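MODEL INPUT / OUTPUT PAIR
PAIR INDEX: 1
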Amino acid sequence: MTADPGSAVNRRPLRSCGVPAALSVALLLSSCTGSGPRGAAGSGGVGDPLFPALGNGGYQVRHYGLDLDYDVKKGRLDATADLTAEATEDLRSFQLDLQGLKVSGVRVDGEDAAFSRKGHKLLVRPAEGLRKGAAFRTTVDYAGSPQELTDPDGTTEGWVKTPDGAFVAGEPAGSMTWFPGNNHPEDKATYDITITVPQGYTAVANGELRSQRTAKGHTTFRWQNGRPMASYLATATIGRFEVHTSRTPGGLPLYVAVDPAEVRASRGPLAKLPEIVAWESGLFGPYPFASAGAVVDRTPSRITWGALEAQTKPIYAGAPDTTTVVHEMAHQWFGDSVTPKTWADTWLNESFATYAEWLWEERRGGKTPQQQFDALYKDAPHNKRWAFPPARPGSAKNVTGPAVYERGAMLLQQLRNAVGDRTFFRILKEWPAAYRYGTADSADFVAFCQERTDVDLAPLFRAWLYGEGKPKRLY
């Protein structure tokens, strides 16, 4: 923890056992502990079909406590991460995802632990083995200049430096550029994020602002996110923002932070937040979190995408239009509360958010969802929309391809036609209720829908969810 916002962070030294930290975990432990504790070596990766190196086996994180001190001018981060986790098997070692940054010490349950680095993996060997079912606490002290990532599709994410701070977005892998963790959507946890920045800057994270204190030229913001969250949805965006707090007519707190250059263009769409939350709550069931809001930043030109559904506070790369706000807020149910088990299940996020756009347009007197479907279906078979089935993207570069968004939404319209409006709109509410704060995959959704109708949905999902090429129009 940062003892004084105006002073250097005090770190405990690593017990190195007289060998360089760059040596392998096995060599470190043989010199320190002899034969060492028994148990498995926790795996690096959880078998994700698109991103096999993300996430780690052997444990489940329950809570992250992140204490960040960011020097905006130098672009330097000094930080401590406290992870409370549960071992899912007997472990003699485990791994965390952390890209770049220098680790100065690791402790497990208060005892110094040996560690080494390989790629984006931080390998940790506790002094004592961890028993299956045991809760344990890992503390990592680290520092450096966080770097952004280039995704397989060529887009930029992670800790992206801006002239007045940082634009922090984590889909699919970017959270590991600023904190160590189990970086896979299946591992969800609660978060406390404390961020210290120079006075005059604002630091925004997920959840609710519990305190804001200024001393000796620095301001510390303490954020608490009490509902489970996937790591890719975490943010710690820093800048000179105009901040507006309010409540919806139903009493939901709103926190909106906007770069001054984007205030005018953002005002109209963001003013609709209360209306959008109320309308989507009517469609999808009660809003799943204790607050809502938005962060609008002025980003570098290399940020070529528009927004990310950071939990409770979507972050926008420039002023959004109203349709984008509708899309990102729909993700609070589909993606944030109900999170995909693997990155191949991302269509479960994007299809519903896209369909919410269609319903909003109809509500405003525009095209109906069926008209949206008809217009898209006219496109030729070689259109990118038909390049791969939504549930089988094939490669990491396709995780946010047109088929995930548009063909996924078209599938939902076909489902609506097959089961009828009454059942379809029941599904829109009951699906996020059944998997609230959890994870789900494509098979879960197929079974969930089939349980609610006597119509045989197998041909529909076979063609529209898993089939290659342009599927036939079944309904």
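PAIR INDEX: 2
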Amino acid sequence: MTDGTGALLVGARRRARESASDAARRARGTRPLAAVAAVFTLAQLALVRPVLGLGWDEIVYVSQVTSHHPAAFFSAPRSRGVSLLVAPVASWSSSTALLRVHLALLSGLALHLALRAWRGLFPTRVLVTAGAFFASLWVTLFYGPQAMPNYWVAVGALIAVGCFLRHRADGSGRGALWGVAAGVALMAWMRPTDAVWVTVPLFVLALAHRHGRLLLALAGGLVAGGAEWVIEAYAGFGGLAERLAEASRIQGGLGWQIAVDDQLRSLGGRALCRPCTGSMPHPVVTLWWFVLPLLAVLGLIVAIRAGRVLPTLLPLACAATAALPYLFMIGYAAPRFLQPAYALLALPVADALWRLVRTPRGRWRPAVAALVALGLAGHLAVQLTVLVHTVDRNVDSRRDWARTADALHRLGVRPPCLVTGYEAIPIGYYTGCSSGATSGNNENTTVGEILRTADRVPVAALTGPGGAPPRYARPWPVHRIGDLEVRVAPAPRPDGSG
């Protein structure tokens, strides 16, 4: 009896030691991923700078939840995910710096969780390299601390695809299924149409192999993340088909349109390339864009030889469907549109780089390793150069909006007020006014409504360089603010007669 008790105690101790050893091994595996996420967070705060003012699209999203500014017009393609993401800060504070820190911390945490979803599918060194590659792209660093949806679609894509593969490899647990649903929901919460494109290969594979649970997780994620967008379509746009049609119109009409050259032009730091004219950036700036798919194909070859095709092929397929509409279906470009594709491509690319470094034997190995290191150093230098240039340019443009707002205040345009015309949304936000447009993609008012508003509060009509003032504002007194013409409606009389 004593011997039996001793054996039980010895077995219990052995299992405890094995459990502790497994926990220590898991902790060692996640520390490098946490380090990548931490460096990414610090790099955002140091290079993008929390004092960077809000951009045009950010203003639209943030103004929906802040009590300090009127809500800007919310057009058909947009989704409420970003607004809810910033609400914990924007709902009570007008501090842009605090909002930037909030988003930088969240984006770093999200990158860590996304990389962890791939543990066991690739070696830790590959995951660290993939995370570092994606995090060091200027577009990732620039948009990580901004109130924009594309980075979060990229994170959701990494989580969804990684957890999908983990569940296929070991279907005994439910954690990976919840990860699939959460990743898809995050994508749909931010941009429902992007979530559909990214998940096409996942649905095809789940249907082909009759994985009912995976199909349920994918569909459940889309419903959970996209339900609000669909409900809003019926409440405010006349139905889902009508909202999709309006979103297509705002984006220039979706259809067969080659935007590959537009994306190349945007790589030099253009936040929005519409219309996308002008010369191409220097070849040094765009070289990585051509090398990326070549390394991804090499990663697939490596995976075939190693007998692990699916963990490489599936992110490649999802990256292709994620990029397809932005390369071949719209007539303009923004570098942030391809962030989900870059995030998914980073994994096979990192695998290929490690194979390049480790495969050669003898005297060739140091030479190849040095060549790869030199290429990565050059790539990082290019990304940081473009990032610094992009940040500086955006700081200047947003300071221009703030200076224009100060000048409008001196002209008597103070909240409550209305700004219409050229760049009305950002200038109106910086001034503390509502913004209005009688035509175009942000149409939300009429001439009659503007004139009636001018009987109650200050109204300013802005005309940009080379533009013509609206007919209703031509009799108003004209002022110059920089290269803008500003017409301010006469102050209403005490009797309200104008």
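PAIR 2 NOTE: The chain has a mean pLDDT of 92.
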